[in-house]
Structure formats: C-alpha cells, structure tokens
Write a structure and sequence with these properties.
This is Ribonuclease 3. Pfam families: dsrm (PF00035), Ribonucleas_3_3 (PF14622). Keywords: Cytoplasm, Endonuclease, Hydrolase, Magnesium, Metal-binding, mRNA processing, Nuclease, RNA-binding, rRNA processing, rRNA-binding, tRNA processing. Strand 1 and strand 2 form a beta hairpin. The relative contact order is 0.12. Strands 1-2-3 form a three-stranded antiparallel sheet. It is mainly alpha-helical. It contains eleven helices and three strands. It folds into two domains: 150 residues, Ribonuclease iii, N-terminal Endonuclease Domain, Chain A; 71 residues, Double Stranded RNA Binding Domain. 59% of the residues lie in helices and 10% in strands.
C-alpha cells in the first residue's frame, strides 16, 4: 500500500505577498480595503468576528453591473434588450467571475477559515466570484470609478466578445424562452429527474411547453441538465415557430 494513501491534504494559508496580486490587477488598492476584500466570513468567524468582505461584495456587484452594462449599451447600439441581457450575464455571472479570479490567482490570497480550507474553498465558484466582486468594490472606494472601469473592462472584454459570437448557444434557456414568446406557444418549464448517489448525482431534464415535451438533456447538476435540454430542443422549436 502506498504511504501517501490516506494522508490529509495540506491546505496552505493565504499568500501575503499581495503586491503580486495588485500587479496582476493593474490598479493600486488601499491596504485596509484590500485586506477587507479578501476576508471571507469563515475566516472572520474563526478570528473573533472581525469585519467580512460581504459589504464590499454588494458594492462591487453594483459597480461591476453598471460598468459592463454601460459598455455593452454603447458598444452594441443595434442590439435589443433581449440580446444584451445574456451578453451581460456572460460577463457578470458567477462562472465568468470565478474564471477571472482563477486567472488572477486571487484564490491564493483569500483569507478562509479552516472549515472552508478543508472543503477546497479556494476552488468554489461562489467564493471566487464573491471575492472578485469585493475587490472591485474596494478598488472603487480606493481609486474611483474610472480606475475601476479600466480593470473591469480589461478583464471582462474576452467574455463579452465570446458572448456576442455565440448566438443562441450563449444561453440556450433564454433562446428557448424567446422562441416560445415569439410563437405565443405558452409557458416554458423543465421536468427534472435525478438518479444515482449523492456524490455522483445525475440529472435528466425535459423542456416542456404547454404540456408538450420538446427536448431532453443530461448533466451533473439541474442547471446543466436544463441547459442541455434547451439546446436539444432549440432547432425543433425554431422550425415550429417559423413554420
């Protein structure tokens, strides 16, 4: 038997060389605000209930949204609201924000409590995206909107470009809903069936419109199964609407 088998995973503490993070970020941030932006509630709880980054996260979410919305509003003057909503989501939702955080190496600097460390908190999309929003909020308070805009636009631009080139694949569920609305076909819903043990759960989703099934898909989460089902149903529904 290998001696390494059964060893407990070592979870290193947060990095303290934050000048590396700021160099990647591209804008200086006041040290006290930077520290607060990196303080997850799990660490705060285990260290005497010090302030957390949650207020900065709230602010950063609003700043991020206005910067990205303003950018795409002016960048794509001919696109409708329905076109702009999924483009914005592609830049401000949890998945892209978590990816940006990983690209920056932000995960290595987050102050996490032991409970989150042992459950691989540094790789949880929710923690990564929330911390990125908190850092945006800290940058806004420290350096103002223009400096924050330069960072946000630089980091989100690749996701915006990809989104504009994706067409209906950007968000199959939104595309299905728009087709159903255009064809006045009724309410879109998803029937979901789960199977397998909790640690390896699989889901199957079926797109239902006014009681009729249009497509089925599978995934490791409800959301992924729904998106897969919407993709499967898209072409069939499009032909029906345009018939």
């Amino acid at each position: 038997m290998s001696r390494s088998k059964g060893r407990r995973k070592v979870n290193p503490p947060a990095r303290t060389d934050r000048e590396v993070l700021l160099e990647r970020w591209g804008v200086q941030v006041r040290p006290d605000l930077l520290d607060l932006s990196l303080t997850h509630r799990s660490w705060a709880f285990e260290n005497g209930g010090v302030p957390t980054n949650e207020r900065l996260e709230l602010l950063g979410d609003a700043v991020l949204s206005i910067i990205v919305t303003d950018r795409i509003f002016h960048q794509y003057p001919d696109k409708s609201e329905a076109d702009l909503v999924p483009i914005r989501a592609a830049a401000v939702s949890e998945a892209p924000l978590a990816e940006i955080a990983k690209q920056l190496g932000l995960d290595e600097f987050i102050l996490l409590g032991n409970g989150e460390l042992v459950t691989d908190g540094r790789n949880k999309p929710s923690i990564l995206s929330d911390t990125l929003e908190a850092l945006i909020g800290a940058t806004y308070l420290s350096e103002g909107l223009d400096a924050t805009r330069s960072v946000v636009e630089r980091l989100t631009e690749p996701f915006i470009i990809d989104a504009t080139n994706a067409g209906p694949a950007l968000d199959w569920k939104t595309s299905i809903q728009m087709l159903a609305n255009d064809g006045k076909m009724g309410t879109v819903s998803y029937e979901i069936v789960g199977s397998g043990p909790d640690h390896a759960r699989r889901y199957e989703a079926t797109v239902m419109i006014d009681g009729k099934a249009w497509g089925t898909g599978q995934g490791t989460s409800r959301a992924k199964a729904e998106m897969s089902a919407a993709e499967a149903a898209y072409e069939k529904l499009r032909r029906a609407v345009n018939a």
